[in-house]
């Protein structure tokens, strides 16, 4: 009879020990899983970013890139806390997104800036683009404004305010060739070159879609400032809630900005004359 309480205590001790060991393993598992920094990106940024991810891995910094095909989901996913950061948008786009959604997001640092261009498979020059041509531009407010500024630079239209980067179709003062504007989602402009007469598009999306050589623009923008440089963006409270991951994110960004291998990947993927560093 005296052995039963002892046996019972031993059983309880084994259970408690198992719970403690399980908790230790669970904490270690969570810790190992939580040190991974997940960055949401658009597909054109994938290859150069992966080069930086591989280099960061050698320094003990774990980063994973998740691709999104549209320009809305990365901010929604980031705001919900499902990813740690995103890398696909410039400051004017972010400003507009915050205005429309009320999300609490902010830039951490700056990445690359790319030129944009006017492209055509049908015509060899802007002068050859006919009256009533179908001209494709992005449908979001910020990139539509950027497209209209480039068309103005080409002397194809005139805007009411020639310096307004948020101009829309209603802000066109003069359209002497009576262009018919077709609005599509920004990433889809790269595929529109097969059908439209003239298309505003992005070299990196054209290269990804393989629809046209991005170096064969009829006109590239002359913008060399960092207004449209792509940003690394996080939630407002990310540094406070995840200080260690935030510091690793900063270290990863420095690798992206300074690595010769990343620079070569950007040259190969975008084109050496089609991008410039936004951090300089």
Automatic annotation (TrEMBL):
Alphabetic keyword roster: Lipoprotein, Membrane, Palmitate, Signal, Transmembrane, Transmembrane helix
Positions of transmembrane segments: 9-26
GO-annotated cellular components: membrane
Name this polypeptide is given: D-methionine-binding lipoprotein MetQ
Main location class: membrane
Family that this chain belongs to: Belongs to the NlpA lipoprotein family.
Keyword Ribosomal protein (UniProt): no
Location relative to the cell: Membrane
PANTHER family the record matches: D-METHIONINE-BINDING LIPOPROTEIN METQ, D-METHIONINE-BINDING LIPOPROTEIN METQ-RELATED
Top-level taxon: Bacteria
Pfam family, one: Lipoprotein_9
Membrane topology value: Lipid-anchor
């Amino acid at each position: 009879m005296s052995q039963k309480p002892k046996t019972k205590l031993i059983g309880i001790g084994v259970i408690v020990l198992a719970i403690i060991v399980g908790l230790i393993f669970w904490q270690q598992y969570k810790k190992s899983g939580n040190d991974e920094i997940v960055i949401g990106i658009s597909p054109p940024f994938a290859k150069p970013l992966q080069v930086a991810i591989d280099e960061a891995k050698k320094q003990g910094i774990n980063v994973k890139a998740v691709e999104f095909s549209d320009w809305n989901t990365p901010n929604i996913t980031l705001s919900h806390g499902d990813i740690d950061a995103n890398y696909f948008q410039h400051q004017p786009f972010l400003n507009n997104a915050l205005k429309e959604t009320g999300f609490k997001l902010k830039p951490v640092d700056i990445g690359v800036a790319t030129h944009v261009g006017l492209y055509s498979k049908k015509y060899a020059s802007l002068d050859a683009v006919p009256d009533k041509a179908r001209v494709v531009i992005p449908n979001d407010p910020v990139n539509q404004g950027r497209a209209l500024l480039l068309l103005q630079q080409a002397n194809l239209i005139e805007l009411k305010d020639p310096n307004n980067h948020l101009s829309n179709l209603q802000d066109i003062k003069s359209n002497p060739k009576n262009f018919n504007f077709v609005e599509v989602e920004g990433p889809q402009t790269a595929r529109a070159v097969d059908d439209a007469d003239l298309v505003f598009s992005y070299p990196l999306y054209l290269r990804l879609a393989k629809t046209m050589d991005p170096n064969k623009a009829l006109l590239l923008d002359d913008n060399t400032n960092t207004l449209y440089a792509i940003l690394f963006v996080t939630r407002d409270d990310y540094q406070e809630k995840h200080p260690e991951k935030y510091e690793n994110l900063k270290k990863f960004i420095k690798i992206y900005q300074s690595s010769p291998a990343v620079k070569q990947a950007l040259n190969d993927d975008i084109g050496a004359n089609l991008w410039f560093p936004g951090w300089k």
